[in-house]
Amino acid sequence: MYTLDDYNLAKIELDALNQRWENYSGNNPNKYKADIAAAGAKVRAIESALKSAGILQRTPQEELEHKLDLAYPNAQSKQIVEFEEKRYIRRFMPLRRSISGRSVTEWAKFWEETNQ
């Protein structure tokens, strides 16, 4: 179980890595990239766990997406569903790519209201 202190420490670590990257003057474009990606994933995981536990409050959009995920746990990309008299479409987009940029290592999933 994560705490708010864990969350704050993870954000500080991510900020410190981003600052190191900005201050880096060498010629290695991938310097700190893996560390930053890992720290970002850690922040997202802790934030998600805290929101699931009710320690952090979800935004109205996150609450809606949580309800849609519960109602349609196996929704595929571009699948349209009806929920509370509105129609929503399931979307995915790349959240993180490999260092080469050729493959996606992590996907973000979200719901979008649609008129279709």
In the sheet with the most strands, the strands line up as 1-2-3
The whole-angstrom Rg is 18 Å
> What is the SS-derived class?
alpha+beta
Give a count of the beta strands, DSSP E runs of length 2 or more.
3
Work out the oligomeric state of the chains in this entry: single chain
Element string (H = helix, E = strand): HHHEEE
Ends apart, CA distance between termini: 41 Å
Looking at the structure, what is the overall shape?
flat
Total of domains: 2
Task: Tell me the number of helical segments per DSSP (H or I, 4 or more residues long).
Answer: 3
Query: How large is the share of residues in beta strands?
Result: 15-25%
Mean pLDDT: 93
Largest sheet: 3 strands, antiparallel
Low-pLDDT segments: none
Helix percentage: 40-55%
Give the key terms.
alpha+beta, 116 residues, single chain, 3 strands, flat
List the helices and strands and how they pair.
Elements: H1 4-23, H2 33-53, H3 60-71, E1 80-83, E2 86-97, E3 104-114
Antiparallel strand pairs: 1-2, 2-3
Helix pairs in contact: 1-2
